[in-house]
């Protein structure tokens, strides 16, 4: 790996290794189970607690979607990208650690702290993603992005496995910890893992492409953002891709963030859910790297088609899901494509954007992705409450993948797009 990648590329990819611990332990596995148990103990119905989680995800994604393009435009100035990244990184790590100290039964406070942690995590990822234009070339972008996701899946399994072991030992009363406190320890492990392995990113990755600072930085940032919006015709391919991304990533994000809640509603035990999610991470790692390799041979867009089609089948299969075995099959299907579709979306977009305006455009990438993440969880939340059946909400996501697939087919390949005038 040292011979294939530069120090900057390795440091950038290692942040996926660091931050993915948050994604699996907080977003997908331990926290949702911990929260569902706290809500149940407080007398909240199962369908309602799932809905409240969906509403919470919608709230924090809405906040970040509003500020993403503005912060991204400011971050395009020399030296600003790393500062914004560091701020959100510290916010996310701090709030994740704080989850361990929320009093028992305070399910609403748990959701509030989770909102702050999620703002930090997703905010840092906006600038982390934008750094891809600074650390590598367009020729290597698919492979570097996919390798980052692959490392993320591998790295996240280590603190996840440690956390599972502690929780299981606590449940079996083999260590002097309650299951609740074992979960709290998992939150602290996540924060520590995230902080330690982010150090290379903070030390070695720097902003190569930038706009030189101007006297009225904030005012000029709004002017540039306004000019970009008004001149959207210059970037038709880019914004057409964002429209496709808006739809298909909605379904991807909703399935990932609420999968544990689905499993809980099906009556699958906490230990079974944790084991399934662990295996999903292990399987997802080589498939994410495989997507990157295949994209070099067949093209990123074709591989995005493959990922979307897999997710369409996932939605259909989820509608009929009833048993633990069904959930296993569903998880393995998701594992084959969740990393690949996210990695190639990031690298494909990175090849479309003007390099010195990467933060501004990745801000739009964020706003499209995050506004999409409002629609899916809200749809699932409302459907779960109205019908009392979460699987119907999952099935309804199929339309988003179909629309995304159709729009994506209209996006030209990056090499066929004429370079527009730089936005200054």
UniProtKB/TrEMBL annotation:
Membrane topology label: Multi-pass membrane protein
Major localization class: membrane
Official protein name in the record: MFS transporter
GO-annotated cellular components: endomembrane system
Localisation: Endomembrane system
Bilayer-spanning residue ranges: 12-35, 55-77, 84-102, 108-128, 149-170, 182-202, 237-262, 268-291, 303-321, 327-349, 361-382, 394-411
Signal peptide bounds: none
Entry keyword set: Membrane, Transmembrane, Transmembrane helix, Transport
Keyword Transmembrane among UniProt keywords: yes
Top-rank taxon, per record: Bacteria
One protein family per Pfam: ATG22
Origin species: Planococcus lenghuensis
The keyword Transmembrane is annotated on this UniProt entry: yes
């Amino acid at each position: 790996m040292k011979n294939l990648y530069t120090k900057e590329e390795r440091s950038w990819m290692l942040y996926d290794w660091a931050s993915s611990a948050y994604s699996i332990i907080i977003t997908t596995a331990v926290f949702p189970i911990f929260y569902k148990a706290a809500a149940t103990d407080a007398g909240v119905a199962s369908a309602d607690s799932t809905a409240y989680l969906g509403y919470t995800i919608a709230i924090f994604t809405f906040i970040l979607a509003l500020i993403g393009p503005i912060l991204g435009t400011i971050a395009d100035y020399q030296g600003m990208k790393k500062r914004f990244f560091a701020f959100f990184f510290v916010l996310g790590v701090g709030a994740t650690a704080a989850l361990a100290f929320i009093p028992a039964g305070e399910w609403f406070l748990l959701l509030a702290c989770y909102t702050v942690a999620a703002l930090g995590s997703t905010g840092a990822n906006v600038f982390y993603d934008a750094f891809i234009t600074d650390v590598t070339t367009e020729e290597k972008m698919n492979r570097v992005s996919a390798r980052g996701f692959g490392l993320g899946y591998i790295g996240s399994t280590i603190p996840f496995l440690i956390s599972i072991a502690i929780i299981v030992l606590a449940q079996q009363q083999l260590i002097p910890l309650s299951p609740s406190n074992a979960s709290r320890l998992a939150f602290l492990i996540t924060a520590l893992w995230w902080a330690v392995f982010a150090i290379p990113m903070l030390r070695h990755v720097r902003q190569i492409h930038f706009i030189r600072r101007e006297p009225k930085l904030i005012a000029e940032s709004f002017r540039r953002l306004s000019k970009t919006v008004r001149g959207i015709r210059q970037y038709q391919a880019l914004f057409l891709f964002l429209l496709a991304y808006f739809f298909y990533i909605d379904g991807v994000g909703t399935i990932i963030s609420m999968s544990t809640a689905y499993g809980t509603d099906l009556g699958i035990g906490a230990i079974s859910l944790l084991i399934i999610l662990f295996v999903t991470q292990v399987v997802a790692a080589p498939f994410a790297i495989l997507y990157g390799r295949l994209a070099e041979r067949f093209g990123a867009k074709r591989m995005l088609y493959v990922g979307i089609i897999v997710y369409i089948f996932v939605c259909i299969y989820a509608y009929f899901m009833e048993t633990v075995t069904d959930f296993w099959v569903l998880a393995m299907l998701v594992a084959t494509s969740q990393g690949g579709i996210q990695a190639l979306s990031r690298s494909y977009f990175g090849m479309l954007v003007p390099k010195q305006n990467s933060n501004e455009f990745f801000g739009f990438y964020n706003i499209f992705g995050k506004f999409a993440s409002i629609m899916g969880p809200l749809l699932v939340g409302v459907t779960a409450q109205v019908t009392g059946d979460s699987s119907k909400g999952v099935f309804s996501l199929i339309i988003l993948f179909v629309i995304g697939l159709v729009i994506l087919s209209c996006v030209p390949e990056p090499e066929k797009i004429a370079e527009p005038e730089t936005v200054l």
